[in-house]
C-alpha cells in the first residue's frame, strides 16, 4: 500500500515538474527571443527568425532612445508611475488603517464599497472618465482658453491612483487586521495619539504589505495602455503608447531592430524589479490575503 502511495506521489511530482518546466519554456523563450532580436540587423530578420545574431547591433537601442523618442516616453512613464504610487499610498494607507482598526457607523458600508470596486476593471470605465475630463476641459477652455485635464500627466496619475484604491485598501486593511492590538494599547499608554500611533507604530509594522502594493501597482501603472492612450492624446505619451507608435513607424520603415529595442526598454525595468523583489512580493500577497 505504501509503495503504491509513493509511486503515485512520485508520478504527481514528476507531472508538476513537467508542467512547471513547460511553463518556464513558454515564458523564457519569447523573452529571450525579443532580447536577441533587439540586437539584430534588419537583414537578419528576413532569414530564419531563430538564428543567433552574427554581431550585436547596440545602435538599435541608441536609435530607439533618441530618434524614436523612447527616452522621453520613459521619463513620462517614470513620472506618472512614481506620482501615482505616492498619491495611492498617501490616500490608501490611512484609509485602510481606519477601516481595519476603528469601529464607526458607516464602517461596513465603506468596506463593502471598496470590495465592490475590486470587481470593476478600470478599462471598462475609461469612456465615462474621458467624457468627464472632456467636459471639464470644455468648461475651463471657455474661462482660461485651454483645458487642464486631458493630455495632463498629473491627471493621468490621479486617475491611476484612484482606480487602484479598491485593491490597495482591501489588501492593506486585511493586513492591519492581523496585527495585535497590544501595540496600539502600549502606544496609547505612553501618551501617543491616534495619528502618532498610526505613523510611528502601525505603518512600519505594515511594511511587508506596503511593499507588496507598491510593487504590484508599479507593474500595473508601468504597463498600462488603454487609459494612457485615451487620456493623453498629445505628445506626452507613456512608454506603452510610445511603443505602439514606434511599432507602426518601424514596420513601415522595416527597421525591426529598433522596434524590438524599444520593446526591451519597456520590459527591462519590470523584469529587473520583479527578479529583485519576487520573494517579498509573494510573501506580502500571502500575508495580506489571509484574513478578510
From TrEMBL:
Pfam families: BPD_transp_1. It comes from the Bacteria. The chain crosses the membrane at residues 12-36, 78-100, 112-133, 153-172, 210-232, 259-277. GO terms for cellular component: plasma membrane. It is found in: Cell membrane. It is a multi-pass membrane protein. Keywords: Cell membrane, Membrane, Transmembrane, Transmembrane helix, Transport. PROSITE patterns: ABC_TM1. Coiled coil: none annotated. InterPro entries: BP-dep_ABC_trans_perm, MetI-like, MetI-like_sf. Residues 74-277 form the ABC transmembrane type-1 domain. GO terms for biological process: transmembrane transport. PANTHER family: DIACETYLCHITOBIOSE UPTAKE SYSTEM PERMEASE PROTEIN NGCG, MALTOSE TRANSPORT SYSTEM PERMEASE-RELATED. Belongs to the binding-protein-dependent transport system permease family. This is ABC transmembrane type-1 domain-containing protein.
Amino acid at each position: 500500500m505504501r509503495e503504491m502511495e509513493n509511486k503515485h506521489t512520485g508520478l504527481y511530482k514528476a507531472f508538476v515538474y513537467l508542467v512547471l518546466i513547460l511553463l518556464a519554456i513558454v515564458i523564457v523563450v519569447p523573452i529571450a527571443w525579443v532580447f536577441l532580436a533587439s540586437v539584430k540587423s534588419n537583414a537578419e530578420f528576413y532569414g530564419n527568425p531563430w538564428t543567433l545574431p552574427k554581431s550585436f547591433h547596440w545602435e538599435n537601442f541608441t536609435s530607439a532612445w533618441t530618434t524614436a523618442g523612447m527616452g522621453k516616453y520613459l521619463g513620462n512613464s517614470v513620472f506618472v508611475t512614481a506620482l501615482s504610487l505616492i498619491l495611492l499610498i498617501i490616500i490608501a494607507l490611512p484609509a485602510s488603517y481606519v477601516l481595519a482598526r476603528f469601529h464607526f457607523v458607516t464602517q461596513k458600508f465603506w468596506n463593502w464599497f471598496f470590495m465592490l470596486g475590486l470587481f470593476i476593471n478600470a478599462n471598462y470605465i475609461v469612456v465615462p472618465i474621458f467624457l468627464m475630463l472632456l467636459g471639464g476641459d470644455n468648461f475651463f477652455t471657455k474661462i482660461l482658453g485651454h483645458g487642464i485635464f486631458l493630455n495632463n500627466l498629473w491627471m493621468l496619475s490621479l486617475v491611476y491612483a484612484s482606480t487602484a484604491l479598491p485593491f490597495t485598501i482591501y489588501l492593506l486593511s486585511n493586513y492591519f487586521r492581523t496585527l495585535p492590538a497590544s501595540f496600539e494599547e502600549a502606544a496609547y499608554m505612553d501618551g501617543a495619539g491616534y495619528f502618532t500611533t498610526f505613523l510611528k507604530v502601525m505603518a512600519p509594522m505594515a511594511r511587508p504589505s506596503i511593499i507588496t502594493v507598491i510593487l504590484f501597482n508599479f507593474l500595473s501603472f508601468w504597463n498600462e495602455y488603454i487609459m494612457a492612450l485615451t487620456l493623453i492624446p498629445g505628445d506626452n505619451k507613456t512608454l506603452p503608447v510610445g511603443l505602439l507608435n514606434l511599432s507602426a513607424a518601424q514596420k513601415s520603415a522595416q527597421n525591426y531592430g529598433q522596434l524590438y529595442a524599444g520593446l526591451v526598454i519597456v520590459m527591462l525595468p519590470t523584469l529587473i524589479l520583479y527578479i529583485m523583489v519576487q520573494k517579498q512580493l509573494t510573501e506580502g500577497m500571502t500575508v495580506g490575503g489571509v484574513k478578510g
